[in-house]
Amino acid sequence: MKTANQPLLSLKGITKRFGALTAVNGVDLDVCPGEIVVIIGPSGSGKSTLLRSVNFLEEIEEGSITFEGNEIGYVKSKHGRRHLDAPAKICELRSEIGMVFQHFNLFPHMTVLGNVMEGPLTVQKKSPEAAREIALDMLAKVGLSDKRDVYPATLSGGQKQRVAIARALAMRPKLMLFDEPTSALDPELIGEVFDTIRSLGKEGMTMIIVTHQMGFAKEMADRVIFMEKGSFVAQGTPEDFFSNQMEHDRIQSFLNRIM
Amino acid sequence: MRLFSGRISKKTILLFSCLFLLLVQACYAADYDQIFSDANDAMGSGDLPAAIAILQKVKPDKGDDSGAFVRSRMQIARLQFALKDMNAASASANEVLALYPDNSEALNFIASVKKEQKPRYVVFLEDCLRFLPQLLKGAVMTITLVVCIIVISPLGGLLIALGRISTFKPVSGLCWFFIWLFRGTPLLLQLFFIYYGLPSLGITFKPFTAAILGLGLNYSAYLGEIIRGGIQSIEHGQMEAAKAIGMSYWQAMRRVIIPQTYKRLMPPIGNEFIALIKDTALVSTIAMVELMRSADQMFNAYFNVTALILAAFIYLLFTTIFTFIFEKIEIRAGIYENR
Ligand SMILES: Nc1ncnc2c1ncn2[C@@H]1O[C@H](COP(=O)(O)OP(=O)(O)OP(=O)(O)O)[C@@H](O)[C@H]1O
Ligand SMILES: [Mg+2]
User: Fold this and answer.
1) DSSP letter at A124?
2) How far lies B331's CA from each of A155, B123, B256, in Å?
3) Chain A touched by B260 (CB under 8 Å)
């Protein structure tokens, strides 16, 4: 059932434990199409784990993930135990959700073009010509057409991250997840990556971005969420969030520390 | 009775005539025996020139006792040979040939004296030429074995490595057991078991099949551990990034993880393959005629160490070529790391 106001992604009660540690504790989140959600919070608060759960890189213990109106990713076995859906199904779901990592994770043995082509070629089984066309489009989008034939080892950090974004975009995802995309970059390289993300936002891409860059959150976010100890402690528009009207002491102290 | 007596008398005549001949022989030979025994005493006391002088008392006599003359001259020749007087030695052998041009002992002796007089390197080269055809035949078999195992064992090793890192317990357990078994016992024992042991269970292999099987299993086990290490050394983020664009585990392995192990695996696998070249020598114990066996055969037939030296050089040639090839492949495999 699709309606105009239906959220693209809807998380209900997401809970992820590592042994005794509850990394994500009952998180609810609705993300509307075209919305840009920025999640901030101290180290170890479960931000990465939450994003990874959305992409099924972590198997959650409780909660549900609804994407475009369908609950996805988990099935009940005969004995009533919940577990991840069949691998083929999970792969299909993942290809609709792009993810960008802090450490880029480019494939070092493939050229820049090869990295970006890989998804369409191997996962979507497109012809090499078609995959190449898509890849060249995506490289143009992130402004790295001239680097297509070099290996990742020769790129700067910023360029690497832009290639990683192009690689994710080549699968034509409906949702993009960014996990601290600029944390591994020298300060002067952060701008180019955010420019790329900004232009994606202008095209209407739905995004969930984990970052410590408050300036970026202020400028880009439709909604800012503060996460701590596995839960959302507060959320609001950037105006609310950064105008010192937020009551929460801990958010204030976190923001003061980080800005 | 009458019948028998006739036969006996014939036999008796024969017997007596033989005895008579022997007696005559003994009379003639008596002084020669003395000479040989004196010569033996002289040799025993280490006085070779004296022995030669004694033996020279035997005269060329075309009569009944030519054997003693030949025997004495050949003995003299050998003694002179031992005293390194090559000219005198061949002269003595030639004395024999002057009377009996076809005497093979003298002919052989002169040939070996000639060989002794040649410069050492000429002798060595001649030996090389003599042994090389056989050794090269063996070397071809060695290389055939090596190439077969180089094709088989990485595939086997990859299967074992993937099995070992499988989360499915029975598979990883089985692969662990396989590695434990084949790395924990001597290759020689494995070969013996396959070739000599399995027939008692009703399974018989040709030597070549047994050799390929033994070496293949053993090297698959070793490479399995190496390849597993290589796969696990690839940073975890690579698998995640591959999965994040929708790849399945096997697609990620095939397209992303395994290709990145090539460069890292090249040095240890190259080492294994160099060890393999030498390990193929072990199959000479299960009736395979390869380089080591050929060298061993030559060595035993001629008691000539040149066969072994030559084999060593061929092994060295192989290992050197392999080292070189693997260095080249390693550079190729890691080309993407160049900045
Ligand atoms: N695979 C894992 N096994 C055990 N514990 C884990 C694992 N992954 C994460 N954790 C724990 O879960 C908690 C949340 O980790 P997470 O990486 O999600 O935090 P984060 O908010 O992303 O932190 P950062 O800002 O440092 O990236 C941490 O305490 C972490 O130690
Ligand atoms: Mg994190």
Assistant:
1) S
2) 21, 44, 19
3) yes
Closest CA to A68 of A26, A27, A33: A33
A27-74 pLDDT per residue, tens: 999 999 999 999 999 999 999 999 999 999 999 999 999 999 999 989
Spell out the domain ranges in chain B: 2-117, 121-338
Question: For the domain B2-117, what is the CATH code?
Answer: 1.25.40.10
The answer, yes or no, to whether any atom of ligand 1 lies below 6 A from the CB of A18, is yes
Look up the pTM and report it: 0.78
Residues 6+ apart with CB under 8 A from B170: none
Q: How many helices (H) and strands (E) does chain B have?
A: 14, 0
Q: In this structure, are residues A12 and A3 in contact, taking their beta carbons and an 8 Å threshold?
A: no
Homologous superfamily (CATH) for B121-338: MetI-like (1.10.3720.10)
CB-CB under 8 Å, B243 with A94: yes
Phi-psi group of A84: left, alpha or beta (phi > 0 → left; psi -120 to 50 → alpha; rest → beta): beta
Q: Whose CA is nearest to atom 7 of ligand 1?
A: A18
- Interval B211-245: pLDDT, tens: 999 999 999 999 999 999 999 999 999 999 999 99
User: Whose CA is closest to atom 3 on ligand 1?
Assistant: A18
Nearest CA in chain A to B261: A109
Q: How far is B330 from chain A (nearest CA, A)?
A: 14
A72: which strand partners?
A65
B251, closest residue in chain A (CA to CA): A122
**Interface touch A94/B336, C-beta < 8 Å:** no
